Task: structure prediction
Amino acid sequence: MDKSSELMQELLLKASSTGASDIHLVANNYPIFRTMGKLEQYQPGGIIDSEHLMAMITSVMNQNQKEVFLRELELDFSLHVPGKARFRANAYFQKGTPAISLRYIPDKIPVISELGLPDICHSFTKLKQGFILVTGPTGSGKSTTLAAIIDEINSTRTDHVVTIEDPIEFVHENKKSIMSQRELGGDTKSWGNALKSVLREDPNVVYIGEMRDPDTMQAAMTVAETGHLVFATLHTNSAAQSIERIVDSFPENQQSQMVLQLSMVLEAVLSQRLIPTISGKRVVVTEIMVVTPAIRNNIREGKTFQIDNVIQTSGNLGMRLMENSLADLVNKNIIDRTTALEYAIRPSLLDKLLGGR
Result:
Protein backbone atom coordinates (compact mmCIF):
# COMPACT_ATOMS: atom_id res chain seq x y z
CA MET A 1 0.00 0.00 0.00
CA ASP A 2 1.51 3.35 -1.05
CA LYS A 3 1.49 6.50 1.09
CA SER A 4 -1.63 7.92 -0.59
CA SER A 5 -3.63 4.76 0.13
CA GLU A 6 -2.25 4.61 3.68
CA LEU A 7 -3.33 8.18 4.46
CA MET A 8 -6.80 7.62 2.99
CA GLN A 9 -7.24 4.46 5.08
CA GLU A 10 -6.00 6.35 8.15
CA LEU A 11 -8.60 9.08 7.63
CA LEU A 12 -11.43 6.59 7.06
CA LEU A 13 -10.54 4.67 10.22
CA LYS A 14 -10.17 7.90 12.19
CA ALA A 15 -13.65 9.04 11.15
CA SER A 16 -15.24 5.70 12.02
CA SER A 17 -13.58 5.60 15.46
CA THR A 18 -14.16 9.22 16.51
CA GLY A 19 -17.76 9.76 15.46
CA ALA A 20 -17.01 12.19 12.65
CA SER A 21 -19.94 12.37 10.23
CA ASP A 22 -17.96 13.65 7.21
CA ILE A 23 -14.46 13.97 5.80
CA HIS A 24 -13.60 16.81 3.40
CA LEU A 25 -10.41 16.66 1.35
CA VAL A 26 -9.53 19.72 -0.74
CA ALA A 27 -6.16 20.32 -2.44
CA ASN A 28 -3.57 22.37 -0.53
CA ASN A 29 -5.45 22.06 2.77
CA TYR A 30 -5.39 19.88 5.85
CA PRO A 31 -7.99 17.07 5.95
CA ILE A 32 -11.22 18.32 7.55
CA PHE A 33 -13.56 16.30 9.77
CA ARG A 34 -17.12 17.32 10.58
CA THR A 35 -17.83 16.29 14.17
CA MET A 36 -21.11 17.14 15.91
CA GLY A 37 -21.88 19.48 13.03
CA LYS A 38 -18.60 21.45 13.29
CA LEU A 39 -15.66 21.40 10.88
CA GLU A 40 -12.22 20.76 12.36
CA GLN A 41 -8.77 20.43 10.77
CA TYR A 42 -6.93 17.14 11.16
CA GLN A 43 -3.38 18.45 11.26
CA PRO A 44 -1.62 15.06 11.65
CA GLY A 45 -2.73 14.37 8.08
CA GLY A 46 -0.64 17.29 6.84
CA ILE A 47 -1.42 19.65 3.97
CA ILE A 48 -2.27 17.56 0.89
CA ASP A 49 -1.22 18.83 -2.52
CA SER A 50 -3.24 18.27 -5.68
CA GLU A 51 -1.19 15.36 -7.05
CA HIS A 52 -1.19 13.54 -3.72
CA LEU A 53 -4.93 14.10 -3.32
CA MET A 54 -5.70 12.74 -6.79
CA ALA A 55 -3.79 9.57 -5.87
CA MET A 56 -5.74 9.30 -2.59
CA ILE A 57 -9.10 9.71 -4.33
CA THR A 58 -8.40 7.24 -7.11
CA SER A 59 -7.03 4.71 -4.58
CA VAL A 60 -10.61 4.05 -3.41
CA MET A 61 -12.10 3.81 -6.92
CA ASN A 62 -12.24 0.90 -9.32
CA GLN A 63 -11.10 1.34 -12.91
CA ASN A 64 -14.56 2.16 -14.26
CA GLN A 65 -15.12 4.75 -11.52
CA LYS A 66 -11.78 6.39 -12.32
CA GLU A 67 -12.72 6.69 -15.98
CA VAL A 68 -16.15 8.17 -15.20
CA PHE A 69 -14.63 10.62 -12.70
CA LEU A 70 -12.05 11.90 -15.17
CA ARG A 71 -14.62 12.12 -17.97
CA GLU A 72 -17.55 13.64 -16.04
CA LEU A 73 -15.41 15.56 -13.46
CA GLU A 74 -17.62 14.31 -10.61
CA LEU A 75 -18.78 10.98 -9.25
CA ASP A 76 -21.03 9.60 -6.52
CA PHE A 77 -19.93 6.21 -5.19
CA SER A 78 -19.63 4.22 -1.97
CA LEU A 79 -16.72 2.42 -0.35
CA HIS A 80 -16.34 -0.06 2.47
CA VAL A 81 -13.86 -0.41 5.31
CA PRO A 82 -14.29 -4.11 6.25
CA GLY A 83 -15.65 -4.56 9.75
CA LYS A 84 -15.74 -0.80 10.36
CA ALA A 85 -18.02 1.26 8.16
CA ARG A 86 -19.17 2.34 4.74
CA PHE A 87 -18.76 5.80 3.28
CA ARG A 88 -20.86 7.62 0.70
CA ALA A 89 -18.47 9.62 -1.44
CA ASN A 90 -18.73 12.50 -3.88
CA ALA A 91 -15.52 13.18 -5.80
CA TYR A 92 -15.37 16.43 -7.76
CA PHE A 93 -13.08 19.16 -9.05
CA GLN A 94 -12.80 22.75 -7.77
CA LYS A 95 -10.55 25.43 -9.20
CA GLY A 96 -9.07 22.78 -11.46
CA THR A 97 -7.99 20.53 -8.57
CA PRO A 98 -9.57 17.30 -7.22
CA ALA A 99 -11.62 17.15 -4.03
CA ILE A 100 -13.78 14.63 -2.22
CA SER A 101 -16.45 14.60 0.49
CA LEU A 102 -17.12 11.37 2.37
CA ARG A 103 -20.15 10.69 4.59
CA TYR A 104 -19.74 8.05 7.32
CA ILE A 105 -22.32 5.25 7.33
CA PRO A 106 -22.13 2.77 10.24
CA ASP A 107 -21.91 -0.93 9.40
CA LYS A 108 -24.69 -1.68 11.88
CA ILE A 109 -28.17 -0.52 10.92
CA PRO A 110 -29.72 1.20 13.96
CA VAL A 111 -33.24 0.41 15.15
CA ILE A 112 -35.95 3.08 15.33
CA SER A 113 -35.79 3.44 19.13
CA GLU A 114 -32.00 3.97 19.12
CA LEU A 115 -32.39 7.01 16.87
CA GLY A 116 -34.82 8.78 19.19
CA LEU A 117 -37.54 8.72 16.55
CA PRO A 118 -41.22 8.89 17.53
CA ASP A 119 -43.09 5.61 18.05
CA ILE A 120 -45.37 6.35 15.10
CA CYS A 121 -42.48 5.32 12.83
CA HIS A 122 -43.26 1.70 13.78
CA SER A 123 -46.72 2.10 12.25
CA PHE A 124 -45.13 3.11 8.91
CA THR A 125 -43.54 -0.35 8.72
CA LYS A 126 -46.96 -2.01 8.89
CA LEU A 127 -48.56 -0.19 5.94
CA LYS A 128 -49.24 -2.27 2.83
CA GLN A 129 -49.40 0.61 0.35
CA GLY A 130 -49.06 4.36 0.10
CA PHE A 131 -46.37 7.03 -0.13
CA ILE A 132 -44.21 8.12 2.82
CA LEU A 133 -41.75 11.01 2.63
CA VAL A 134 -38.79 11.58 4.93
CA THR A 135 -37.55 15.13 4.48
CA GLY A 136 -34.89 17.48 5.76
CA PRO A 137 -31.69 19.25 4.69
CA THR A 138 -28.48 17.43 3.79
CA GLY A 139 -26.95 15.79 6.86
CA SER A 140 -30.20 15.58 8.82
CA GLY A 141 -30.19 11.78 9.10
CA LYS A 142 -32.85 10.95 6.49
CA SER A 143 -30.97 7.93 5.13
CA THR A 144 -30.38 6.55 8.63
CA THR A 145 -34.06 6.93 9.54
CA LEU A 146 -35.15 5.11 6.40
CA ALA A 147 -32.55 2.39 6.93
CA ALA A 148 -34.04 1.72 10.37
CA ILE A 149 -37.60 1.64 8.98
CA ILE A 150 -36.61 -0.64 6.08
CA ASP A 151 -34.72 -2.92 8.49
CA GLU A 152 -37.84 -3.29 10.65
CA ILE A 153 -39.83 -4.27 7.55
CA ASN A 154 -37.06 -6.71 6.62
CA SER A 155 -37.20 -8.21 10.14
CA THR A 156 -40.98 -8.52 10.48
CA ARG A 157 -42.49 -9.03 7.01
CA THR A 158 -42.10 -11.60 4.23
CA ASP A 159 -41.90 -9.08 1.38
CA HIS A 160 -39.73 -8.13 -1.57
CA VAL A 161 -38.09 -4.77 -0.88
CA VAL A 162 -36.44 -2.96 -3.80
CA THR A 163 -34.22 0.06 -3.15
CA ILE A 164 -32.91 2.46 -5.81
CA GLU A 165 -29.95 4.43 -4.49
CA ASP A 166 -27.12 6.68 -5.64
CA PRO A 167 -25.00 5.20 -4.17
CA ILE A 168 -26.07 2.30 -1.90
CA GLU A 169 -25.54 3.44 1.67
CA PHE A 170 -26.68 0.94 4.33
CA VAL A 171 -26.37 -2.68 3.17
CA HIS A 172 -29.40 -4.82 4.10
CA GLU A 173 -28.99 -8.58 4.41
CA ASN A 174 -32.02 -10.78 3.71
CA LYS A 175 -33.94 -11.52 6.91
CA LYS A 176 -37.64 -12.33 6.58
CA SER A 177 -37.82 -10.26 3.40
CA ILE A 178 -35.90 -10.39 0.15
CA MET A 179 -33.77 -7.26 -0.26
CA SER A 180 -32.85 -6.07 -3.78
CA GLN A 181 -30.62 -2.99 -3.64
CA ARG A 182 -29.93 -1.27 -6.97
CA GLU A 183 -27.16 1.31 -7.34
CA LEU A 184 -27.18 3.96 -10.02
CA GLY A 185 -24.33 3.34 -12.45
CA GLY A 186 -23.52 -0.18 -11.27
CA ASP A 187 -26.94 -1.86 -11.34
CA THR A 188 -29.00 0.54 -13.46
CA LYS A 189 -28.20 3.23 -16.02
CA SER A 190 -30.68 5.82 -14.74
CA TRP A 191 -33.38 6.61 -12.19
CA GLY A 192 -35.92 6.54 -15.02
CA ASN A 193 -34.95 3.04 -16.16
CA ALA A 194 -34.97 1.70 -12.60
CA LEU A 195 -38.39 3.15 -11.82
CA LYS A 196 -39.88 1.92 -15.09
CA SER A 197 -38.70 -1.62 -14.45
CA VAL A 198 -39.42 -1.80 -10.72
CA LEU A 199 -43.05 -2.82 -11.19
CA ARG A 200 -41.88 -5.85 -13.19
CA GLU A 201 -39.71 -6.95 -10.26
CA ASP A 202 -42.70 -7.98 -8.11
CA PRO A 203 -41.96 -5.56 -5.23
CA ASN A 204 -44.02 -5.01 -2.10
CA VAL A 205 -41.94 -2.09 -0.84
CA VAL A 206 -39.90 0.39 -2.88
CA TYR A 207 -37.36 2.86 -1.48
CA ILE A 208 -36.25 5.72 -3.75
CA GLY A 209 -33.05 7.30 -2.44
CA GLU A 210 -33.92 10.81 -3.62
CA MET A 211 -36.67 12.41 -5.68
CA ARG A 212 -34.66 14.73 -7.91
CA ASP A 213 -37.07 15.78 -10.65
CA PRO A 214 -40.73 15.68 -11.75
CA ASP A 215 -40.27 12.36 -13.58
CA THR A 216 -38.96 10.67 -10.43
CA MET A 217 -41.77 12.18 -8.36
CA GLN A 218 -44.47 11.07 -10.78
CA ALA A 219 -43.00 7.57 -11.03
CA ALA A 220 -42.89 7.28 -7.23
CA MET A 221 -46.55 8.27 -6.91
CA THR A 222 -47.56 5.87 -9.70
CA VAL A 223 -45.80 2.97 -7.94
CA ALA A 224 -47.67 3.86 -4.73
CA GLU A 225 -50.94 4.20 -6.63
CA THR A 226 -50.62 0.68 -8.00
CA GLY A 227 -50.75 -0.87 -4.52
CA HIS A 228 -47.16 -0.67 -3.26
CA LEU A 229 -45.57 0.94 -0.21
CA VAL A 230 -43.12 3.61 -1.35
CA PHE A 231 -40.57 5.52 0.74
CA ALA A 232 -38.64 8.50 -0.64
CA THR A 233 -36.60 11.47 0.56
CA LEU A 234 -36.88 15.16 -0.26
CA HIS A 235 -34.79 18.20 0.72
CA THR A 236 -37.54 20.22 2.41
CA ASN A 237 -38.00 21.49 5.97
CA SER A 238 -41.67 20.83 6.75
CA ALA A 239 -44.69 18.77 5.73
CA ALA A 240 -46.51 21.66 4.03
CA GLN A 241 -43.33 22.72 2.21
CA SER A 242 -42.87 19.16 0.95
CA ILE A 243 -46.30 19.14 -0.67
CA GLU A 244 -45.69 22.56 -2.25
CA ARG A 245 -42.27 21.44 -3.56
CA ILE A 246 -43.74 18.40 -5.31
CA VAL A 247 -46.65 20.31 -6.85
CA ASP A 248 -44.49 23.28 -7.92
CA SER A 249 -42.02 20.93 -9.65
CA PHE A 250 -44.58 20.26 -12.38
CA PRO A 251 -45.69 22.55 -15.20
CA GLU A 252 -48.86 24.48 -14.41
CA ASN A 253 -50.98 22.43 -16.83
CA GLN A 254 -50.04 19.20 -14.97
CA GLN A 255 -50.38 20.47 -11.41
CA SER A 256 -54.08 19.70 -10.92
CA GLN A 257 -53.49 16.07 -11.90
CA MET A 258 -50.46 15.81 -9.59
CA VAL A 259 -52.36 17.38 -6.69
CA LEU A 260 -55.12 14.79 -7.06
CA GLN A 261 -52.67 11.91 -7.31
CA LEU A 262 -50.62 13.12 -4.32
CA SER A 263 -53.75 13.57 -2.19
CA MET A 264 -54.72 9.96 -2.91
CA VAL A 265 -51.40 8.20 -2.25
CA LEU A 266 -49.61 10.25 0.45
CA GLU A 267 -49.79 8.61 3.88
CA ALA A 268 -47.28 10.54 5.99
CA VAL A 269 -44.45 13.07 5.98
CA LEU A 270 -41.66 12.91 8.55
CA SER A 271 -39.43 16.01 8.54
CA GLN A 272 -36.31 15.98 10.68
CA ARG A 273 -33.21 17.89 11.72
CA LEU A 274 -30.15 17.00 13.81
CA ILE A 275 -29.34 19.73 16.31
CA PRO A 276 -26.65 20.20 19.00
CA THR A 277 -27.52 19.45 22.61
CA ILE A 278 -26.35 21.14 25.82
CA SER A 279 -24.09 18.11 26.47
CA GLY A 280 -22.31 18.53 23.12
CA LYS A 281 -24.00 15.67 21.27
CA ARG A 282 -26.74 15.85 18.63
CA VAL A 283 -30.41 14.95 18.86
CA VAL A 284 -33.09 14.46 16.23
CA VAL A 285 -36.11 16.79 16.15
CA THR A 286 -39.09 15.82 14.05
CA GLU A 287 -42.27 17.09 12.47
CA ILE A 288 -44.90 14.46 11.71
CA MET A 289 -47.90 14.74 9.45
CA VAL A 290 -50.23 11.76 9.11
CA VAL A 291 -52.56 12.18 6.15
CA THR A 292 -56.17 12.33 7.39
CA PRO A 293 -59.30 13.08 5.33
CA ALA A 294 -58.94 16.75 6.36
CA ILE A 295 -55.36 16.91 5.07
CA ARG A 296 -56.27 15.08 1.85
CA ASN A 297 -58.92 17.72 1.31
CA ASN A 298 -56.44 20.54 1.98
CA ILE A 299 -54.01 19.05 -0.55
CA ARG A 300 -56.74 18.68 -3.20
CA GLU A 301 -57.95 22.24 -2.70
CA GLY A 302 -54.44 23.73 -2.66
CA LYS A 303 -54.84 24.90 0.94
CA THR A 304 -51.42 23.85 2.18
CA PHE A 305 -51.37 26.94 4.42
CA GLN A 306 -53.98 25.20 6.59
CA ILE A 307 -51.96 22.03 7.10
CA ASP A 308 -49.90 23.42 10.00
CA ASN A 309 -53.11 24.08 11.94
CA VAL A 310 -54.36 20.54 11.34
CA ILE A 311 -51.03 19.09 12.53
CA GLN A 312 -51.01 21.32 15.62
CA THR A 313 -54.51 20.21 16.67
CA SER A 314 -54.01 16.49 15.93
CA GLY A 315 -51.52 15.46 18.58
CA ASN A 316 -53.82 12.58 19.53
CA LEU A 317 -53.07 11.05 16.09
CA GLY A 318 -49.30 11.27 16.60
CA MET A 319 -48.84 14.51 14.67
CA ARG A 320 -46.64 17.38 15.77
CA LEU A 321 -44.90 20.41 14.37
CA MET A 322 -41.14 20.82 14.57
CA GLU A 323 -41.68 23.50 17.23
CA ASN A 324 -43.50 21.02 19.51
CA SER A 325 -40.48 18.74 19.32
CA LEU A 326 -38.09 21.64 20.00
CA ALA A 327 -40.15 22.89 22.96
CA ASP A 328 -40.19 19.39 24.51
CA LEU A 329 -36.39 19.21 24.30
CA VAL A 330 -35.98 22.68 25.84
CA ASN A 331 -38.32 21.74 28.70
CA LYS A 332 -36.29 18.59 29.31
CA ASN A 333 -33.04 20.65 29.36
CA ILE A 334 -31.64 18.67 26.42
CA ILE A 335 -31.22 21.75 24.21
CA ASP A 336 -31.14 25.44 25.13
CA ARG A 337 -33.69 28.04 24.06
CA THR A 338 -31.27 29.88 21.77
CA THR A 339 -30.48 26.72 19.81
CA ALA A 340 -34.18 25.85 19.59
CA LEU A 341 -35.03 29.27 18.13
CA GLU A 342 -32.15 29.00 15.67
CA TYR A 343 -33.57 25.77 14.23
CA ALA A 344 -37.26 26.68 14.45
CA ILE A 345 -39.23 27.06 11.22
CA ARG A 346 -41.87 29.14 13.03
CA PRO A 347 -39.95 31.06 15.77
CA SER A 348 -43.03 32.97 16.99
CA LEU A 349 -44.87 29.69 17.61
CA LEU A 350 -41.91 28.26 19.50
CA ASP A 351 -41.69 31.43 21.60
CA LYS A 352 -45.37 30.99 22.45
CA LEU A 353 -44.94 27.30 23.31
CA LEU A 354 -42.06 28.23 25.64
CA GLY A 355 -44.19 30.89 27.33
CA GLY A 356 -41.96 33.72 26.11
CA ARG A 357 -39.20 32.77 28.50
